[in-house]
Amino acid sequence: MIVNIGLIGFGTVGSGVYDLIMQNACLIKERTGLDLRIKTVCDIRTEDVKKKVGSINVINDWRDVITDKEIDTVVELIGGISPAKSIILESLKNGKNVVTANKKLLAEDGDEIFNTAGMSNSKLGFEASVGGGMPCILSLKYGLVGTRINTVIGILNGTTNYILTKMEDEGLTFEMALKDAQDKGFAEADPTFDIEGFDAGHKIALLSMLAYNRKVDFKSISIDGITKINQLDIEYAKEMGYVIKLLGISKLIGDEVDIRVHPAMLPMDHPLASVRNEFNAVMYITDMTGPVILYGKGAGNHPTASAVVSDIVQIARDTVKDDKALTASIDSKYLSSEKRLFRFYMRLSTEDRPGILSKISGVLAKYDISIASVIQKEIHTKNPDSKNVPLVIMTHVACEDKMLRSIDEINNFNFVEGKVTFIKVEDSLSLGDEYE
Ligand code: HSE
Prior knowledge:
Blueprint: E1 2-8, H1 12-32, E2 35-42, H2 46-53, E3 57-59, H3 63-66, E4 73-76, H4 84-93, E5 97-100, H5 103-109, H6 111-119, E6 124-125, H7 136-143, E7 149-155, H8 158-170, H9 174-183, H10 192-195, H11 198-212, E8 222-223, H12 231-239, E9 242-253, E10 256-267, E11 279-286, E12 290-297, H13 301-317, E13 333-334, E14 341-350, H14 356-366, E15 371-376, E16 389-395, E17 398-399, H15 400-411, E18 416-425
Parallel strand pairs: 1-2, 1-4, 2-3, 4-5, 5-6, 8-10, 10-13, 10-18
Antiparallel strand pairs: 7-9, 7-11, 9-10, 11-12, 14-16, 14-17, 14-18, 15-16
Helix pairs in contact: 1-13, 4-6, 5-11, 8-9, 14-15
The structure holds L-homoserine (HSE).
L-homoserine (HSE) is lined by residues 132, 157-159, 186-188, 194, 199, 298-299.
């Protein structure tokens, strides 16, 4: 069977899809009997694209793709909201199957798209929107479909994982590591999406919808990126047996969901602690299987192209209408911050004189927060000009709400320079025994 593809967008991922089909079309035909053919490429840079794709038809108006009767599957890879949303909706209405990598659109504004796909005879694939080459959506829709999933935890952004790894291993500055990730094609067009945690937020939102069969309001997800992490935090974490990772974490506790993205201290022996560079990993914890981990390249042209082609093939093979998980009717309830419990790492810069430690510990005691360990070095070797010293405190499990209030009070002491840096520790997640 021939599958005629209309490819809209010939950037990093679009050109990766072209490469993959050129290289592996015979193999795919052997495996599946499907003959994948790119009939048309649509991109505003028509002349540049023509030079790369030889005899394939190149146009610059997407409407000519979605109205082409010979095209079965429209692949939307331009990203953003407009015109991507119109391309997807109109393609579905025109009876085309649609494959997209557009996590922002689906996570923030996907309702209409999921509903349209659910009601139409067309299929919508979005494996490429999460985890690049890792089949993490396929695992939820098929592999783990018989289980009750209670936790999804993932390193879901290649750019930030690359930055944190390079800062840790090679002492690169944040800016140098980001530039390097951009040069390698991992970063979003606007890299604030990566470093401020929104990209990971879009991905954990989509995984949560599928894992828990619920609508997720993207605005309800608490998101914090890695811009406040510095070399000192990375070194202190190492000294205490932790590594700092940007995690997307989602839990279903009773009938409440807790979904968040933030830098977290992971114990060095945690399975996700060894996920380095642009690699991603996602751990699902289910009632039947316990933890299941997928690990792989989550960014870049060819890994993401692999997910696009997987959707094209899956859709062509699959004649059953199975988008039900995306038309969920249950609204999520969200866990409040009084119910969120963590250990916290805090670092502050303070004068070195009598009574200071007791004032700080007094505030923590007032809020029922117990100190697990304290580190204070005599001289701040990283900054010999400062008369202040870094003070690092690790707490026992504390309520997030109380911790935030105590940090506000500590920030107001005049002997504290700047603001307290604090990072949540995620050592309670290890293997998810708490959910068995
Ligand atoms: N900017 C993303 C990342 C690309 O770094 O993971 C894949 O979504």
